[in-house]
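Narrative progress, year one. The postdoctoral researcher (J.K.) led the effort to move from monomer predictions toward full complexes, under supervision of the PI. The following entry was the first complex the group processed end to end, covering 595 residues in total.
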Amino acid sequence: MLKRTTGEKIFAVFNYIILAIAAFACLVPMLNVLAISFSSSSAAAAGYVRLWPVDFTLASYKYALSKQEFLQSFLVSMRRVALGYIVNMVMTISIAYPLSKEKSTFRARNYYAWFFIITMMFNGGLIPTFMTVRKLGLLDKIWALVLPGAVPVFNVILLMNFFRELPKEIEEAAYIDGASHWTTLFRIYLPLSLPSLATISLFVIVGHWNGWFDGMIYMNRPKNWPLQTYLRTILINPDLNHYQTSSEELAGMREVSERTFKSAQVFLGAAPILAVYPFLQKYFMKGLVMGSVKG
Amino acid sequence: MAGNKKWIRELPLHILLIPGVIAVFIFNYIPMFGIVMAFQKFVPAKGFLGSEWIGLDNFRYIFNMPNIWNVIRNTVFIAVMKIIANLIVPIIFALLLNEVRKNAFKRTIQTIIYFPHFLSWVILGGILIDVLSPTSGIVNEFIGLFGIKPIYFLGDSKWFPFTLVFTNTWKEFGYNTIVYLAALTSIDPTLYEAAVVDGAGRLKQTWHITLPGILPIVTLMTVLSLGNVLNAGFDQVFNLYSPSVYSTGDIIDTLVYRIGMVEAQFSVSAAVGLFKSAISFVLVVISNKLANKYAGYRVF
């Protein structure tokens, strides 16, 4: 390692401090709302709560978890993630494999590739897509949240590029041994692609968990809303709240207020992502670099 | 190889593609054809084929709307500001992070700054509405320490576009930082050693080696973002705006939503959407051509 001059040492110290402050600042909004969610309503109203709970209480969480609508939409989200995950992964793999072949092995390859790429550059837009989903009778069905995005083209490209970087010799050897495409895909490609599949899995799961707009336009009945759509009516647009989170109900509770209740729900909505993020972010980073910095 | 045998060998590949082709045809291509409704007086009961054709009337209607140019200007302004912020902030962060020698520290910072990217704008909207509140928010409490009067970041039309750009950068800059950092670590270390032998200090090294080293990837990311000049970020704006900031915060996508889903003027909404898609399509094609020419980039 090269020796550092005094100036460089001073710079290094400042650099650590600046980065630490900036990263901390990024966390402050979350920490503040988290602290409020664990504080009593009076402490939150008085403005005492900054980054640490005041009058620690779990009352807001207990109240949120006792609400029928919250649990219902939580379940809709779980179903959506499960179904969406299966559909997205099957589609991604079954499209990425043929497209990873050279034109000499798969003559129609480029026609198919363009068929999918065009959808990244042009789409029908909100209203024609909505009309199509409606015409198919999917409104208020869980499939409306799964099928319109069944083919995640970006993920297909990610996996296709990964397949293409696998050594050609493996595939050729398998072919000479008489292996079919099915064997090649299931016995060779997929086991070798686990890091890439993990990355894509996470993108898919996070994407489905975070989806709120499709729930808002395709689901007329509040009982069919996924969690993020339900949370939107609570957090962003209380006047449109079909459930009318009753202020009277809250007024009867000593420790919960509108504000602490909202804060608790923010964190319950983000909880699954918070839970997996620390373990899985290394895959994300790898997958991200893999997908974007190929020249 | 005989043509017949080759076809049999290819058959499983076609079979694998069938479900994907059907799904994309139904949910992407049919709506693309459905865009003909922009030239119709669309009535849902009559469908795409049965509705009355009215030529360019919907487009004439749009461009006579009093707020349309305002909305277009807001869209471009917000989108371009976001592109610029998302270029500069990540480069600075990547340069600073690249100087860090303790890997654990580096990883921790990356993990923290990348995190907001994974939260939805509903969740972040809930958080921002609370922390940016002029009466009880922690942000106004903090700037109050410096004697600044509370600012209504989400309700004041002067501040709103800048709040959008700032909060969007907060959510997304971690992503680009990691991309640039990967490019920085792939610079040949012998270049730095040679520079030290030649007597170049850190600043000179940064200027003459580091920045030129990441220039290709910076160019690529910038050129590709050109396609987003009309994407000001529906998810964000829709969850943060309110009628009091429409004058500076209403964008094409939110207008399409309100005309179509709230006012049920389907054809007008589709026409605005088509106008945007057409321009975006041209921009994407140009940006991809440029990216290919200057950085050898290919989509597939």
